[in-house]
Automatic annotation (TrEMBL):
Residues 33-124 form the MaoC-like domain. The gene is A03p011640.1_BraROA. Pfam families: MaoC_dehydratas. This is MaoC-like domain-containing protein. It comes from the Eukaryota. It comes from Brassica rapa subsp. trilocularis.
């Protein structure tokens, strides 16, 4: 059981093509969150997933495999996407995610997770939303992970998440 609670450093909404005053999700809207993954995060993920690959825990094993340092699990990094979506849309159901791992993430890297709404479709009393997803490293243009996600949203009204969640 993890005793540490994750507190996001930054959770933002950017408007690319829609009105700044609206709190209703529109195609083109971008949701962002920054996070630094720690050794404790990696250990906690390994305890839950049972992925004890030495590349995540032993610096020498990681270097022998051609990496600079110990790696953060790629699936742990990708967990930023449902977190970002559900922070704005409590009750969202994550339906699918494609992932392309482009570059390694090391413990201590500053990662910016970005989801951008690409299509919105109403069905019954819910909405099917498709998003492009991307993580970038250390305030650069280096993409470490990208793909697409689909989620069922209970509505299109975005909550402004608190930084103490």
């Amino acid at each position: 059981m993890l005793a540490k609670t994750f507190v996001p450093r930054q959770l933002l909404v950017s408007r690319c093509f829609s009105s700044v005053t609206s709190k209703t999700l529109k195609v083109g809207d971008v949701l962002r969150e920054a996070r630094v993954f720690s050794s404790e995060d990696v250990k906690g993920y390994a305890e839950v997933s049972h992925d004890w690959n030495p590349l995540h825990f032993d610096q020498e094993s990681a270097r022998k495999a051609g990496f600079e340092d110990r790696l953060v699990h790629g699936m742990l990094v990708s967990s930023m996407f449902p977190r970002i979506i559900s922070a704005h849309f409590p009750g969202a159901v994550y339906v699918s995610q494609t992932l392309h791992f482009r570059s390694p993430v090391y413990i201590g890297d500053d990662i910016l997770g970005i989801v951008q709404a690409t299509t919105l479709r109403q069905t019954n009393n819910k909405y099917i939303a498709k998003f492009t997803t991307k993580c970038m490293k250390n305030h650069s243009e280096l993409t470490v992970l990208d793909g697409e996600a689909t989620a069922i949203l209970p509505n299109l009204e975005m909550l402004q998440p608190s930084h103490t969640e």
